[in-house]
Amino acid sequence: MTIKEFSGVWTAIVTPMNENGKVDYGSLESLVEKQVEGGVSGIVAVGTTGESPTLTPKEHIEVIAKIHEFAAGRIPVVAGTGSNSTAESIDMTKEADEIGVEGFLIVAPYYNKPTQEGVFLHFSEIAKITEKPIILYTIPGRCGIGIENETALRLRNAYPNFIAIKEAGGKVEKVRDMYAKAQGKMNVLSGDDGLTVEFMKSGAKGVVSVASNLIPAPMVELVNFCLNSQWEKAEALHEKLFPLFKDLFIEPNPVPAKYALAKTGMIATSAVRLPLCRMSDEHCIKLMQTLNSLNLI
User: Fold this and answer.
1) Distance CA 55, CA 64 (A)
2) Where is the catalytic site (predicted)?
3) Closest C-alpha among 205, 117, 202, 107 to residue 155
């Protein structure tokens, strides 16, 4: 895949579960179909939104394989294969590569808090075992560290398969700086639905979206407005959808997203695995009001 193809809306798909905590592959297949019908550019399988921290290693690979099977070549699948262990990330990347996924989303090594040199070496070892595209994922709020632009560009210069970075640090100036320095060699994708328009004004080429689980077609419309510099239309649609962007993070992701998907009938249950748990009644009411205001119920 080319850099240009890593633009648009990439759905960070949830991993539906039944009330017994098992993965609900029926709901997952239905959700993949909704993404294809909605026109998204691709699917990110088993990222944070897919509850990667609580899936077993076996489940992790099984879910990636099922999503790839359900997509059936109609849209590309990028596998989340990041870890704070370089060896573990390499093993998962190899397994996902054998499944046939089109690329990988790999988060910064969390908890260890390595230096930027350590980050560079971590990603370098992973890049050596695949020729497929890799999207770097920087989210300092969850990882304790970020991937600096200089490190991302150093990786891109050393290994051509680093083609994009998912920026979830919330800083528009970092997006602007990357856009200027990358000179078309690396795309930026927003890691926050609510910042998509602002980031794309600063040079980002799309979003890895949680909201598109629920509203794939409107998210595609929003991003296409931005890609075509139709900023008035983009701002108007952003304003309409912003309450949903906000309320999908009223509690830790993907708890609100799964609640909304279950209430709209897109998945069977809102079940999550501990330590995540059911939303508070107050937040359930608030999210329901937002869903009703957008005629999603």
Assistant:
1) 11
2) 137, 166
3) 117
pLDDT at 5: 74
State how far the Cα of 240 lies from the Cα of 226, in Å rounded to an integer: 15
34 noted as active-site residue: no
Domains, the chain, in order of start with CATH, read 3-231 (3.20.20.70)
pLDDT digits (tens, 9 = 90+) for 139-181: 999 999 999 999 999 999 999 999 999 999 999 999 999 999 9
Distances from the Cα of 8 to the Cα of 20, 52, 118, 166, 216, angstroms: 35, 23, 31, 12, 11
Query: What distances in angstroms separate CA 27 from CA 1, 166, 285, one per listed residue?
Result: 28, 27, 24
Q: Is 151 annotated as a binding residue?
A: no
Please report the DSSP string for 56-118 in residue order. -HHHHHHHHHHHHHHHTTSS-EEEE---SSHHHHHHHHHHHHHHT-SEEEEE--TTT---HHH
Residue 246 a catalytic site member: no
Q: Is 32 part of any known ligand binding site?
A: no
Give the SS3 label for residue 183: coil
> Looking at 34, 66, 166, 263, which residue is catalytic?
166
